Amino acid sequence: MIAKRVGGALLTLFLLSLVVFAMSLLMGGDAAEAMLGQNATPEALAGLRAAMHLDQPSWQRYLGWLGGLLRGDLGVSLITKLPVSTLLAPRLLASLQLAGLTAAVSVPLALFLGILAAVRRGSLLDRVISMATIGVVSVPEFVIATLMVLIFAVRLHWLPALSSSRDFSSLHDVVRVFTMPVICLACVVMAQMIRMTRAAVCDALDSSYVEAARLKGVPPRRLVLGHALPNAIGPIVNAVALSLSVLLGGVIVIEVIFNYPGVARLMVDAVSTRDLPLIQTVAMIFSAAYLMLVTSADIVAILCNPRLRHR
Amino acid sequence: MNTVPKSGVPYGAQAPKVRRRRMNVSLLLGGATIIFWLIVALVGPMVAPHAPGQVVDLDVFSPASSTLPLGSDYLGRDVLSRMLIASRFTVSIALLATLLAATVGVFCGLLAASSGWVDAIFSKLFDTLSAVPSLMFGLVVIGSLGASIPVLVGTLATVYSPGAFRTSRALARNIAVLDFVTVARARGETLPYIVLREILPNLVGPLAADFGLRFVFVTLLLSGLSFLGLGVQPPNADLGALVRENIAGLGFGAAAVLVPTFAIASLTIGMNMVIDAVSGGRRAGGRR
After folding, report:
1. Closest alpha carbon to A242 in A305, A309, A291, A299
2. pTM of the model
3. Which terminal residue of chain A has fewer beta carbons within 10 Å of its beta carbon, N or C?
4. Helices B204-227 & B134-145 angle (0-180, nearest 10)
5. What is the DSSP-derived secondary structure letter of residue B6?
6. What range defines the domain where residue B68 resides?
7. Is A192 touching B (CB cutoff 8 A)?
8. Of B131, B227, B286, the CB nearest to A291
9. What pLDDT is recorded for position B23?
10. Distance, in angstroms, between A134 CA and closest chain B CA?
Protein backbone atom coordinates (compact mmCIF):
# COMPACT_ATOMS: atom_id res chain seq x y z
CA MET A 1 0.00 0.00 0.00
CA ILE A 2 2.74 2.42 0.99
CA ALA A 3 4.88 1.29 -1.92
CA LYS A 4 1.93 2.02 -4.21
CA ARG A 5 1.66 5.56 -2.86
CA VAL A 6 5.38 6.19 -3.33
CA GLY A 7 5.24 4.73 -6.84
CA GLY A 8 2.29 6.95 -7.68
CA ALA A 9 4.17 9.99 -6.42
CA LEU A 10 7.20 9.11 -8.54
CA LEU A 11 5.01 8.73 -11.62
CA THR A 12 3.45 12.12 -10.94
CA LEU A 13 6.93 13.58 -10.53
CA PHE A 14 7.87 12.23 -13.95
CA LEU A 15 4.73 13.69 -15.54
CA LEU A 16 5.55 16.93 -13.78
CA SER A 17 8.94 17.09 -15.42
CA LEU A 18 7.08 16.93 -18.74
CA VAL A 19 4.74 19.75 -17.67
CA VAL A 20 7.60 21.89 -16.41
CA PHE A 21 9.53 21.33 -19.60
CA ALA A 22 6.47 22.14 -21.70
CA MET A 23 5.95 25.34 -19.71
CA SER A 24 9.50 26.36 -20.36
CA LEU A 25 9.05 25.63 -24.07
CA LEU A 26 6.25 28.19 -23.99
CA MET A 27 8.84 30.74 -23.04
CA GLY A 28 10.55 29.97 -26.31
CA GLY A 29 14.19 30.13 -27.41
CA ASP A 30 14.37 33.80 -26.62
CA ALA A 31 17.13 33.29 -24.07
CA ALA A 32 19.81 33.53 -26.75
CA GLU A 33 18.29 36.75 -28.07
CA ALA A 34 17.89 38.13 -24.57
CA MET A 35 21.56 37.39 -23.81
CA LEU A 36 22.98 38.98 -26.92
CA GLY A 37 20.68 41.97 -26.83
CA GLN A 38 21.80 44.52 -29.41
CA ASN A 39 24.70 42.33 -30.62
CA ALA A 40 22.27 39.74 -31.99
CA THR A 41 23.64 39.19 -35.49
CA PRO A 42 22.16 36.08 -37.15
CA GLU A 43 25.53 34.23 -37.00
CA ALA A 44 26.13 35.04 -33.33
CA LEU A 45 22.55 33.97 -32.55
CA ALA A 46 22.98 30.66 -34.38
CA GLY A 47 26.33 30.02 -32.67
CA LEU A 48 24.98 30.74 -29.21
CA ARG A 49 21.89 28.60 -29.84
CA ALA A 50 24.14 25.72 -30.82
CA ALA A 51 26.29 26.24 -27.73
CA MET A 52 23.21 26.19 -25.49
CA HIS A 53 21.73 23.19 -27.38
CA LEU A 54 18.72 25.33 -28.26
CA ASP A 55 18.94 24.09 -31.87
CA GLN A 56 18.21 20.47 -30.97
CA PRO A 57 14.66 19.14 -31.25
CA SER A 58 12.72 19.54 -28.03
CA TRP A 59 12.49 15.85 -27.11
CA GLN A 60 16.29 15.58 -27.27
CA ARG A 61 16.64 18.59 -25.01
CA TYR A 62 14.10 17.10 -22.64
CA LEU A 63 16.02 13.82 -22.37
CA GLY A 64 19.28 15.67 -21.85
CA TRP A 65 17.75 17.82 -19.15
CA LEU A 66 16.08 14.88 -17.40
CA GLY A 67 19.32 12.88 -17.48
CA GLY A 68 21.21 15.77 -15.96
CA LEU A 69 18.56 16.20 -13.29
CA LEU A 70 18.84 12.53 -12.31
CA ARG A 71 22.63 12.75 -12.12
CA GLY A 72 22.34 15.84 -9.91
CA ASP A 73 23.65 18.08 -12.65
CA LEU A 74 21.22 20.99 -12.71
CA GLY A 75 22.80 22.81 -15.62
CA VAL A 76 24.24 26.28 -15.87
CA SER A 77 22.29 29.50 -15.50
CA LEU A 78 21.98 31.17 -18.90
CA ILE A 79 22.37 34.66 -17.49
CA THR A 80 25.02 34.47 -14.79
CA LYS A 81 26.93 31.47 -16.22
CA LEU A 82 27.15 30.00 -12.73
CA PRO A 83 26.03 26.41 -12.06
CA VAL A 84 22.39 26.41 -10.96
CA SER A 85 23.29 24.42 -7.86
CA THR A 86 25.70 27.15 -6.68
CA LEU A 87 23.05 29.81 -7.14
CA LEU A 88 20.39 27.73 -5.51
CA ALA A 89 22.07 26.37 -2.39
CA PRO A 90 22.17 29.54 -0.24
CA ARG A 91 18.70 30.62 -1.41
CA LEU A 92 17.23 27.22 -0.64
CA LEU A 93 18.76 27.31 2.83
CA ALA A 94 17.27 30.75 3.47
CA SER A 95 13.81 29.66 2.29
CA LEU A 96 13.97 26.49 4.35
CA GLN A 97 14.83 28.54 7.43
CA LEU A 98 11.80 30.72 6.84
CA ALA A 99 9.48 27.79 6.11
CA GLY A 100 10.84 25.68 8.96
CA LEU A 101 10.42 28.46 11.51
CA THR A 102 6.90 29.13 10.27
CA ALA A 103 5.97 25.46 10.50
CA ALA A 104 7.50 25.16 13.97
CA VAL A 105 5.40 28.09 15.18
CA SER A 106 2.16 27.42 13.36
CA VAL A 107 1.60 23.65 13.49
CA PRO A 108 1.44 23.17 17.29
CA LEU A 109 -0.50 26.39 17.80
CA ALA A 110 -3.00 25.60 15.04
CA LEU A 111 -3.61 22.05 16.28
CA PHE A 112 -4.14 23.31 19.82
CA LEU A 113 -6.60 26.03 18.74
CA GLY A 114 -8.41 23.73 16.32
CA ILE A 115 -8.96 21.00 18.92
CA LEU A 116 -9.97 23.59 21.52
CA ALA A 117 -12.54 25.09 19.14
CA ALA A 118 -13.95 21.64 18.36
CA VAL A 119 -14.26 20.69 22.02
CA ARG A 120 -15.92 23.99 22.95
CA ARG A 121 -18.15 23.93 19.90
CA GLY A 122 -20.74 26.72 19.88
CA SER A 123 -19.01 28.68 22.64
CA LEU A 124 -17.86 32.29 22.34
CA LEU A 125 -14.25 31.09 21.91
CA ASP A 126 -15.24 28.83 19.02
CA ARG A 127 -17.12 31.64 17.29
CA VAL A 128 -14.24 34.08 17.74
CA ILE A 129 -11.78 31.54 16.34
CA SER A 130 -13.94 30.65 13.36
CA MET A 131 -14.66 34.30 12.51
CA ALA A 132 -10.95 35.11 12.73
CA THR A 133 -9.96 32.16 10.56
CA ILE A 134 -12.58 32.97 7.91
CA GLY A 135 -11.25 36.51 7.91
CA VAL A 136 -7.63 35.45 7.46
CA VAL A 137 -8.39 32.76 4.86
CA SER A 138 -10.28 35.35 2.82
CA VAL A 139 -7.56 37.95 2.74
CA PRO A 140 -4.59 37.77 0.35
CA GLU A 141 -1.15 37.36 1.92
CA PHE A 142 0.01 40.72 0.68
CA VAL A 143 -2.79 42.48 2.56
CA ILE A 144 -1.73 40.92 5.85
CA ALA A 145 1.89 41.72 5.09
CA THR A 146 1.19 45.35 4.17
CA LEU A 147 -0.93 45.89 7.27
CA MET A 148 1.85 44.47 9.43
CA VAL A 149 4.45 46.68 7.79
CA LEU A 150 2.13 49.66 8.31
CA ILE A 151 1.71 48.91 12.01
CA PHE A 152 5.08 47.58 13.11
CA ALA A 153 7.55 49.27 10.78
CA VAL A 154 5.94 52.56 9.76
CA ARG A 155 3.95 53.52 12.84
CA LEU A 156 5.74 51.83 15.72
CA HIS A 157 9.27 51.54 14.26
CA TRP A 158 9.76 48.26 16.09
CA LEU A 159 10.93 46.14 13.17
CA PRO A 160 12.62 46.76 9.84
CA ALA A 161 10.33 46.70 6.80
CA LEU A 162 12.81 44.60 4.80
CA SER A 163 14.31 41.28 5.81
CA SER A 164 17.25 41.25 3.45
CA SER A 165 19.92 41.37 6.14
CA ARG A 166 21.71 38.05 6.60
CA ASP A 167 23.63 39.11 9.68
CA PHE A 168 22.80 36.62 12.39
CA SER A 169 25.43 37.61 14.95
CA SER A 170 22.96 37.77 17.80
CA LEU A 171 19.52 36.47 18.67
CA HIS A 172 18.27 40.04 18.47
CA ASP A 173 19.11 40.22 14.76
CA VAL A 174 17.47 36.89 14.03
CA VAL A 175 14.28 38.05 15.72
CA ARG A 176 14.30 41.34 13.84
CA VAL A 177 14.70 39.65 10.46
CA PHE A 178 12.26 36.80 10.87
CA THR A 179 9.43 38.13 13.04
CA MET A 180 7.27 39.77 10.39
CA PRO A 181 7.65 37.28 7.51
CA VAL A 182 7.08 34.38 9.88
CA ILE A 183 4.00 35.93 11.48
CA CYS A 184 2.49 36.74 8.07
CA LEU A 185 3.05 33.25 6.73
CA ALA A 186 1.94 31.62 9.97
CA CYS A 187 -1.35 33.57 9.89
CA VAL A 188 -2.21 32.27 6.44
CA VAL A 189 -1.15 28.69 7.14
CA MET A 190 -2.71 28.47 10.57
CA ALA A 191 -6.13 29.71 9.54
CA GLN A 192 -6.69 26.73 7.28
CA MET A 193 -5.13 24.22 9.59
CA ILE A 194 -7.40 25.38 12.42
CA ARG A 195 -10.51 25.07 10.26
CA MET A 196 -9.68 21.60 9.01
CA THR A 197 -8.56 20.33 12.42
CA ARG A 198 -11.77 21.59 13.96
CA ALA A 199 -13.86 19.91 11.29
CA ALA A 200 -12.02 16.59 11.70
CA VAL A 201 -12.30 16.56 15.50
CA CYS A 202 -15.96 17.63 15.31
CA ASP A 203 -16.69 14.69 13.01
CA ALA A 204 -14.96 12.29 15.38
CA LEU A 205 -16.81 13.73 18.40
CA ASP A 206 -20.15 13.28 16.62
CA SER A 207 -19.59 9.58 15.96
CA SER A 208 -21.50 6.99 17.90
CA TYR A 209 -18.48 5.33 19.53
CA VAL A 210 -17.53 8.61 21.20
CA GLU A 211 -21.15 8.94 22.29
CA ALA A 212 -20.89 5.47 23.82
CA ALA A 213 -17.66 6.38 25.59
CA ARG A 214 -19.28 9.54 26.95
CA LEU A 215 -22.25 7.57 28.26
CA LYS A 216 -19.80 5.12 29.84
CA GLY A 217 -18.50 8.09 31.86
CA VAL A 218 -15.11 8.69 30.29
CA PRO A 219 -13.77 12.05 31.56
CA PRO A 220 -13.76 14.82 28.90
CA ARG A 221 -9.99 15.03 28.55
CA ARG A 222 -9.60 11.29 27.95
CA LEU A 223 -12.63 11.40 25.66
CA VAL A 224 -10.98 13.91 23.35
CA LEU A 225 -7.34 12.82 23.55
CA GLY A 226 -7.85 9.06 23.87
CA HIS A 227 -11.00 8.37 21.89
CA ALA A 228 -11.72 11.12 19.35
CA LEU A 229 -8.24 12.29 18.40
CA PRO A 230 -6.69 9.00 17.19
CA ASN A 231 -9.43 8.70 14.57
CA ALA A 232 -9.07 12.31 13.52
CA ILE A 233 -5.31 12.05 12.94
CA GLY A 234 -5.65 11.03 9.28
CA PRO A 235 -7.63 14.12 8.22
CA ILE A 236 -5.53 16.33 10.50
CA VAL A 237 -2.24 15.19 8.99
CA ASN A 238 -3.75 15.82 5.58
CA ALA A 239 -4.77 19.29 6.69
CA VAL A 240 -1.25 19.99 7.94
CA ALA A 241 0.29 18.82 4.66
CA LEU A 242 -2.12 20.87 2.57
CA SER A 243 -1.56 23.96 4.68
CA LEU A 244 2.19 23.59 4.48
CA SER A 245 1.88 23.33 0.72
CA VAL A 246 0.11 26.67 0.80
CA LEU A 247 3.27 27.89 2.46
CA LEU A 248 5.08 27.14 -0.81
CA GLY A 249 2.87 29.59 -2.69
CA GLY A 250 2.59 32.17 0.07
CA VAL A 251 6.33 32.31 0.40
CA ILE A 252 6.56 33.87 -3.08
CA VAL A 253 4.57 36.96 -2.15
CA ILE A 254 6.12 37.26 1.30
CA GLU A 255 9.69 36.98 0.00
CA VAL A 256 8.99 39.67 -2.59
CA ILE A 257 7.37 42.05 -0.11
CA PHE A 258 10.05 41.70 2.55
CA ASN A 259 12.85 41.43 0.00
CA TYR A 260 13.87 38.15 1.63
CA PRO A 261 16.65 36.41 -0.36
CA GLY A 262 14.99 33.01 -0.80
CA VAL A 263 14.25 30.61 -3.63
CA ALA A 264 10.96 32.27 -4.57
CA ARG A 265 12.61 35.62 -5.21
CA LEU A 266 15.21 33.83 -7.31
CA MET A 267 12.32 32.38 -9.30
CA VAL A 268 10.65 35.76 -9.82
CA ASP A 269 13.95 37.17 -11.04
CA ALA A 270 14.57 34.14 -13.27
CA VAL A 271 11.17 34.57 -14.92
CA SER A 272 11.90 38.19 -15.72
CA THR A 273 15.29 37.31 -17.27
CA ARG A 274 13.94 34.12 -18.95
CA ASP A 275 16.66 32.02 -17.36
CA LEU A 276 15.33 28.61 -18.38
CA PRO A 277 17.56 26.16 -16.45
CA LEU A 278 16.93 28.13 -13.26
CA ILE A 279 13.17 28.27 -13.80
CA GLN A 280 12.96 24.56 -14.54
CA THR A 281 14.94 23.61 -11.47
CA VAL A 282 13.03 25.87 -9.09
CA ALA A 283 9.68 24.74 -10.50
CA MET A 284 10.73 21.11 -10.04
CA ILE A 285 11.87 21.78 -6.46
CA PHE A 286 8.59 23.42 -5.51
CA SER A 287 6.50 20.69 -7.14
CA ALA A 288 8.60 17.90 -5.64
CA ALA A 289 8.25 19.50 -2.21
CA TYR A 290 4.48 19.58 -2.63
CA LEU A 291 4.38 15.94 -3.69
CA MET A 292 6.58 14.92 -0.79
CA LEU A 293 4.26 16.66 1.67
CA VAL A 294 1.12 15.09 0.25
CA THR A 295 2.62 11.62 -0.04
CA SER A 296 4.02 11.62 3.47
CA ALA A 297 0.61 12.76 4.75
CA ASP A 298 -0.94 9.80 2.93
CA ILE A 299 1.59 7.42 4.46
CA VAL A 300 1.10 8.78 7.99
CA ALA A 301 -2.66 8.47 7.55
CA ILE A 302 -2.21 4.82 6.52
CA LEU A 303 0.09 4.08 9.44
CA CYS A 304 -2.37 5.67 11.88
CA ASN A 305 -5.37 3.73 10.64
CA PRO A 306 -5.30 0.01 11.49
CA ARG A 307 -8.02 -0.67 8.92
CA LEU A 308 -5.74 0.58 6.15
CA ARG A 309 -2.55 -0.77 7.70
CA HIS A 310 -3.62 -4.39 7.74
CA ARG A 311 -5.10 -4.55 4.30
CA MET B 1 -21.88 19.71 2.46
CA ASN B 2 -25.11 18.95 4.25
CA THR B 3 -24.89 15.39 5.41
CA VAL B 4 -27.60 13.39 7.06
CA PRO B 5 -27.48 14.14 10.80
CA LYS B 6 -25.46 11.53 12.64
CA SER B 7 -26.90 9.56 15.51
CA GLY B 8 -26.92 11.02 19.00
CA VAL B 9 -27.61 14.46 20.38
CA PRO B 10 -25.40 17.35 19.32
CA TYR B 11 -22.36 18.07 21.44
CA GLY B 12 -23.40 20.97 23.69
CA ALA B 13 -27.11 21.34 24.34
CA GLN B 14 -27.87 24.86 23.11
CA ALA B 15 -25.59 24.65 20.07
CA PRO B 16 -28.23 24.27 17.30
CA LYS B 17 -30.18 27.39 18.28
CA VAL B 18 -27.09 29.57 18.41
CA ARG B 19 -25.84 28.24 15.11
CA ARG B 20 -29.12 28.84 13.29
CA ARG B 21 -29.23 32.50 14.34
CA ARG B 22 -25.59 33.03 13.33
CA MET B 23 -26.24 31.30 10.02
CA ASN B 24 -28.96 33.74 9.09
CA VAL B 25 -26.94 36.77 10.10
CA SER B 26 -23.88 35.67 8.14
CA LEU B 27 -26.03 34.66 5.17
CA LEU B 28 -27.67 38.09 5.15
CA LEU B 29 -24.42 39.99 5.65
CA GLY B 30 -22.42 37.93 3.18
CA GLY B 31 -25.17 37.90 0.58
CA ALA B 32 -25.62 41.66 0.82
CA THR B 33 -21.86 42.15 0.34
CA ILE B 34 -21.78 39.92 -2.74
CA ILE B 35 -24.82 41.63 -4.29
CA PHE B 36 -23.31 45.03 -3.53
CA TRP B 37 -20.10 44.14 -5.41
CA LEU B 38 -22.01 42.63 -8.31
CA ILE B 39 -24.02 45.84 -8.68
CA VAL B 40 -20.87 47.95 -8.39
CA ALA B 41 -19.20 45.86 -11.10
CA LEU B 42 -22.26 46.10 -13.31
CA VAL B 43 -23.23 49.78 -13.12
CA GLY B 44 -20.25 51.30 -11.28
CA PRO B 45 -18.22 52.46 -14.30
CA MET B 46 -21.32 54.17 -15.74
CA VAL B 47 -21.83 56.38 -12.70
CA ALA B 48 -18.13 57.09 -12.11
CA PRO B 49 -17.68 60.86 -11.63
CA HIS B 50 -14.37 61.02 -13.55
CA ALA B 51 -12.57 59.06 -16.24
CA PRO B 52 -10.34 56.49 -14.51
CA GLY B 53 -7.15 57.88 -16.06
CA GLN B 54 -7.97 61.56 -15.55
CA VAL B 55 -5.76 63.56 -13.17
CA VAL B 56 -8.18 65.65 -11.13
CA ASP B 57 -6.13 66.74 -8.13
CA LEU B 58 -2.78 68.50 -7.93
CA ASP B 59 -2.16 66.88 -4.60
CA VAL B 60 -1.34 63.16 -4.38
CA PHE B 61 -2.83 60.91 -1.70
CA SER B 62 -5.13 63.72 -0.62
CA PRO B 63 -7.70 62.78 2.03
CA ALA B 64 -11.41 62.42 1.34
CA SER B 65 -13.27 65.63 0.51
CA SER B 66 -16.67 66.59 -0.85
CA THR B 67 -15.41 66.58 -4.47
CA LEU B 68 -13.31 63.42 -4.12
CA PRO B 69 -15.18 61.10 -1.72
CA LEU B 70 -12.24 58.69 -1.44
CA GLY B 71 -9.38 61.13 -2.01
CA SER B 72 -6.82 60.96 -4.78
CA ASP B 73 -4.22 58.33 -5.66
CA TYR B 74 -0.46 58.46 -6.30
CA LEU B 75 -0.91 60.48 -9.50
CA GLY B 76 -3.76 62.64 -8.24
CA ARG B 77 -6.49 60.58 -9.90
CA ASP B 78 -9.93 60.07 -8.36
CA VAL B 79 -9.85 56.93 -6.23
CA LEU B 80 -13.61 56.42 -6.36
CA SER B 81 -13.70 56.30 -10.16
CA ARG B 82 -10.72 53.96 -10.26
CA MET B 83 -12.28 51.72 -7.62
CA LEU B 84 -15.45 51.42 -9.69
CA ILE B 85 -13.50 50.36 -12.78
CA ALA B 86 -11.18 48.08 -10.81
CA SER B 87 -14.00 46.19 -9.13
CA ARG B 88 -15.51 45.51 -12.55
CA PHE B 89 -12.18 44.01 -13.68
CA THR B 90 -11.74 41.91 -10.54
CA VAL B 91 -15.31 40.62 -10.41
CA SER B 92 -15.62 39.88 -14.12
CA ILE B 93 -12.23 38.20 -14.56
CA ALA B 94 -12.72 36.12 -11.43
CA LEU B 95 -16.26 35.11 -12.44
CA LEU B 96 -15.21 34.20 -15.95
CA ALA B 97 -12.22 32.16 -14.76
CA THR B 98 -14.29 30.39 -12.12
CA LEU B 99 -16.99 29.54 -14.67
CA LEU B 100 -14.38 28.16 -17.04
CA ALA B 101 -12.65 26.15 -14.31
CA ALA B 102 -15.95 24.79 -13.02
CA THR B 103 -17.18 23.84 -16.49
CA VAL B 104 -14.00 22.00 -17.40
CA GLY B 105 -13.66 20.43 -13.96
CA VAL B 106 -17.26 19.26 -13.67
CA PHE B 107 -17.39 17.95 -17.22
CA CYS B 108 -14.19 15.92 -16.79
CA GLY B 109 -15.25 14.89 -13.28
CA LEU B 110 -18.55 13.46 -14.47
CA LEU B 111 -16.84 11.73 -17.35
CA ALA B 112 -14.27 10.24 -14.98
CA ALA B 113 -16.94 9.03 -12.57
CA SER B 114 -18.67 7.09 -15.30
CA SER B 115 -15.73 5.29 -16.85
CA GLY B 116 -12.74 3.49 -15.37
CA TRP B 117 -9.89 4.18 -17.75
CA VAL B 118 -10.95 7.80 -18.37
CA ASP B 119 -10.87 8.19 -14.60
CA ALA B 120 -7.31 6.88 -14.35
CA ILE B 121 -6.03 9.23 -17.05
CA PHE B 122 -7.87 12.35 -15.89
CA SER B 123 -7.02 11.78 -12.23
CA LYS B 124 -3.33 11.51 -12.99
CA LEU B 125 -3.48 14.53 -15.28
CA PHE B 126 -5.23 16.80 -12.81
CA ASP B 127 -3.12 15.54 -9.91
CA THR B 128 -0.02 16.51 -11.83
CA LEU B 129 -1.44 19.92 -12.63
CA SER B 130 -2.34 20.59 -9.03
CA ALA B 131 1.17 19.71 -7.85
CA VAL B 132 2.54 22.89 -9.38
CA PRO B 133 2.12 25.68 -6.80
CA SER B 134 -0.55 28.02 -8.18
CA LEU B 135 1.32 31.29 -7.96
CA MET B 136 4.40 29.68 -9.51
CA PHE B 137 2.31 28.36 -12.40
CA GLY B 138 0.85 31.83 -12.94
CA LEU B 139 4.29 33.37 -12.75
CA VAL B 140 5.70 31.12 -15.48
CA VAL B 141 2.73 31.16 -17.85
CA ILE B 142 2.08 34.89 -17.62
CA GLY B 143 5.79 35.59 -17.68
CA SER B 144 6.08 33.76 -20.99
CA LEU B 145 2.81 34.60 -22.73
CA GLY B 146 2.50 38.18 -21.52
CA ALA B 147 -0.15 39.59 -19.23
CA SER B 148 -3.31 39.98 -21.29
CA ILE B 149 -6.79 39.39 -19.94
CA PRO B 150 -7.46 36.17 -21.94
CA VAL B 151 -4.14 34.72 -20.70
CA LEU B 152 -5.06 35.74 -17.17
CA VAL B 153 -8.48 34.07 -17.35
CA GLY B 154 -6.98 30.94 -18.90
CA THR B 155 -4.25 30.68 -16.28
CA LEU B 156 -6.63 31.13 -13.36
CA ALA B 157 -9.02 28.58 -14.85
CA THR B 158 -6.21 26.06 -15.40
CA VAL B 159 -4.96 26.44 -11.85
CA TYR B 160 -8.38 25.86 -10.28
CA SER B 161 -9.93 23.25 -12.59
CA PRO B 162 -8.25 20.30 -10.76
CA GLY B 163 -10.09 21.26 -7.57
CA ALA B 164 -13.44 21.40 -9.35
CA PHE B 165 -12.61 18.10 -11.02
CA ARG B 166 -11.82 16.36 -7.76
CA THR B 167 -14.94 17.65 -6.00
CA SER B 168 -17.36 16.74 -8.78
CA ARG B 169 -15.72 13.35 -9.32
CA ALA B 170 -15.94 12.43 -5.63
CA LEU B 171 -19.57 13.58 -5.43
CA ALA B 172 -20.59 11.84 -8.64
CA ARG B 173 -18.96 8.58 -7.60
CA ASN B 174 -20.89 8.57 -4.34
CA ILE B 175 -24.15 9.11 -6.19
CA ALA B 176 -23.39 6.68 -9.01
CA VAL B 177 -23.60 3.69 -6.62
CA LEU B 178 -27.00 4.65 -5.20
CA ASP B 179 -30.07 2.57 -5.95
CA PHE B 180 -31.89 4.95 -8.25
CA VAL B 181 -28.90 5.07 -10.58
CA THR B 182 -28.73 1.28 -10.62
CA VAL B 183 -32.43 1.26 -11.43
CA ALA B 184 -31.92 3.72 -14.29
CA ARG B 185 -29.13 1.55 -15.59
CA ALA B 186 -31.32 -1.54 -15.36
CA ARG B 187 -34.03 0.36 -17.27
CA GLY B 188 -31.49 0.57 -20.08
CA GLU B 189 -30.99 4.35 -20.04
CA THR B 190 -28.09 5.71 -22.02
CA LEU B 191 -24.94 7.00 -20.31
CA PRO B 192 -25.60 10.69 -21.14
CA TYR B 193 -29.12 10.39 -19.72
CA ILE B 194 -27.85 8.83 -16.50
CA VAL B 195 -25.12 11.39 -16.04
CA LEU B 196 -27.17 14.48 -16.94
CA ARG B 197 -30.65 13.59 -15.63
CA GLU B 198 -29.96 11.23 -12.73
CA ILE B 199 -26.59 12.22 -11.28
CA LEU B 200 -26.08 15.92 -12.09
CA PRO B 201 -29.27 17.27 -10.44
CA ASN B 202 -28.10 15.77 -7.15
CA LEU B 203 -24.79 17.59 -7.36
CA VAL B 204 -26.13 21.11 -7.87
CA GLY B 205 -26.09 22.13 -4.22
CA PRO B 206 -22.58 20.98 -3.27
CA LEU B 207 -21.21 22.14 -6.62
CA ALA B 208 -22.65 25.62 -6.04
CA ALA B 209 -20.82 25.79 -2.71
CA ASP B 210 -17.66 24.59 -4.43
CA PHE B 211 -18.14 27.25 -7.11
CA GLY B 212 -18.31 29.98 -4.47
CA LEU B 213 -15.20 28.67 -2.76
CA ARG B 214 -13.33 28.54 -6.04
CA PHE B 215 -14.42 32.12 -6.78
CA VAL B 216 -12.73 33.15 -3.52
CA PHE B 217 -9.50 31.37 -4.47
CA VAL B 218 -9.52 32.85 -7.96
CA THR B 219 -10.06 36.35 -6.58
CA LEU B 220 -7.18 35.87 -4.15
CA LEU B 221 -4.79 34.56 -6.79
CA LEU B 222 -5.81 37.29 -9.25
CA SER B 223 -5.16 39.95 -6.63
CA GLY B 224 -1.85 38.32 -5.75
CA LEU B 225 -0.76 38.24 -9.39
CA SER B 226 -1.80 41.86 -9.89
CA PHE B 227 0.04 42.79 -6.74
CA LEU B 228 3.21 41.25 -8.20
CA GLY B 229 2.59 43.26 -11.41
CA LEU B 230 1.55 40.24 -13.48
CA GLY B 231 -2.20 40.81 -13.49
CA VAL B 232 -4.26 43.51 -15.19
CA GLN B 233 -1.86 45.96 -16.81
CA PRO B 234 -1.96 49.79 -16.71
CA PRO B 235 -3.80 51.96 -17.72
CA ASN B 236 -6.45 49.49 -16.53
CA ALA B 237 -6.35 48.16 -13.02
CA ASP B 238 -8.06 45.62 -10.82
CA LEU B 239 -8.22 45.80 -7.04
CA GLY B 240 -4.86 44.10 -6.53
CA ALA B 241 -3.21 46.47 -9.00
CA LEU B 242 -4.68 49.44 -7.13
CA VAL B 243 -3.04 48.21 -3.93
CA ARG B 244 0.25 47.78 -5.78
CA GLU B 245 0.35 51.21 -7.39
CA ASN B 246 -0.67 53.06 -4.25
CA ILE B 247 1.46 51.10 -1.81
CA ALA B 248 3.57 54.22 -1.17
CA GLY B 249 0.51 55.82 0.42
CA LEU B 250 0.50 53.21 3.16
CA GLY B 251 2.65 55.39 5.39
CA PHE B 252 0.03 58.16 5.38
CA GLY B 253 -2.86 55.73 5.72
CA ALA B 254 -4.18 56.93 2.33
CA ALA B 255 -7.63 55.77 1.27
CA ALA B 256 -6.12 54.98 -2.15
CA VAL B 257 -4.42 51.87 -0.71
CA LEU B 258 -6.75 51.03 2.17
CA VAL B 259 -10.04 51.04 0.22
CA PRO B 260 -9.05 48.45 -2.43
CA THR B 261 -7.47 46.31 0.31
CA PHE B 262 -10.71 46.24 2.26
CA ALA B 263 -12.67 45.77 -0.96
CA ILE B 264 -10.84 42.52 -1.73
CA ALA B 265 -11.26 41.38 1.84
CA SER B 266 -15.00 42.16 1.96
CA LEU B 267 -15.65 40.42 -1.36
CA THR B 268 -13.94 37.20 -0.30
CA ILE B 269 -15.12 37.25 3.32
CA GLY B 270 -18.69 37.85 2.15
CA MET B 271 -18.52 34.87 -0.19
CA ASN B 272 -17.04 32.68 2.54
CA MET B 273 -19.80 33.68 4.95
CA VAL B 274 -22.49 32.74 2.44
CA ILE B 275 -20.91 29.35 1.74
CA ASP B 276 -20.42 28.68 5.43
CA ALA B 277 -24.03 29.51 6.21
CA VAL B 278 -25.40 27.46 3.33
CA SER B 279 -23.26 24.40 3.98
CA GLY B 280 -23.94 24.52 7.73
CA GLY B 281 -20.54 25.75 8.87
CA ARG B 282 -19.07 22.27 8.68
CA ARG B 283 -16.98 22.79 5.59
CA ALA B 284 -13.26 22.26 5.92
CA GLY B 285 -11.63 25.14 4.09
CA GLY B 286 -8.49 24.76 2.03
CA ARG B 287 -6.77 27.23 -0.21
CA ARG B 288 -5.58 25.68 -3.39
Report:
1. A291
2. 0.77
3. C
4. 60
5. P
6. 16-287
7. yes
8. B131
9. 57
10. 7
